[in-house]
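Lab notebook, bench 4. The sequencing result for the construct came back, and we need a structural model before the next group meeting so we can plan mutations. Quick request posted to the team channel:

Model the 3D structure of this chain.
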Amino acid sequence: MTRRHDLERHRHSLGEIRSILNSMKTLAYLETRKLARRTAPQQGLVAHIVDSAQQLLAAWPQLLPDAGPGESIGIVIGSERGFCGDFNRSLVDLAVARQRAAPLQHWVLVGRRLQSLWPDAVAVDAALDGASVAEELEAVRDAVVATLGRLRARLAPGPLQVLSHPVAGAPHWTTLLPPFQEPAPVAPPREAPLLQLPPQHLLLELTDQYLFAALNACMADALMAESHQRVMHLERATQHLETQWQELGRRANTLRQEEIIEEIEVILLSAGAGDSGPHP
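Done. Here's the predicted structure in token form:
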């Protein structure tokens, strides 16, 4: 009986853990739904800015910015919380591979879980807390912008890239500076477009808007991908716990049946001993 009680206590503990994981999975799913309303408009804004810049550069290709010989900065957007599988490990592996192939000179890490996996061999200039929910994205973005401002104030301007998870697909690098490096999908216009600002001034304004919008989009996409991966990871964990919970239930039932059989045998033996005694 003691063994059965131990199994039932273990099964009860697994049931409580399963309930907690189900609650976490539900919250992560709700977060993906909330973020879905933000990611599509932000991606659309970035695409609109890039399209405008490409049309401008199609008319004035000499304005295309150059990376220059400055010092490069890499921003890696990881997770603040766990229970998201290899979300952070895949980022670290890509960053280390990049550092071996084409080293970046300065690194900014976003997310405590990412920082816990970061190798000591790659020096970090700044480590910032990440966003756990959508409402924290603006504060984290402002912290990243402030950190970049301090770094670029003392560094020669150079490439700025972000490593993050997109909403779908594998993690990849996004180049923020120099911007608009993809070739324009349109042919040069026969006549220069009419502008309210000088072309150089307009390109600078578009660059500022692009940096802000692209950073926002990268962070929102990363949190969306993290939440989706957390849902999948917790789903696998709850399924595993469900299997264990059911198996313990079967084992406990088997032991209970054995106990009942033993009790019946004892009763029958007692009854048989009473029947075999002296009769009056």
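The two ends are 39 Å apart (CA to CA).
Will bring this to the meeting.
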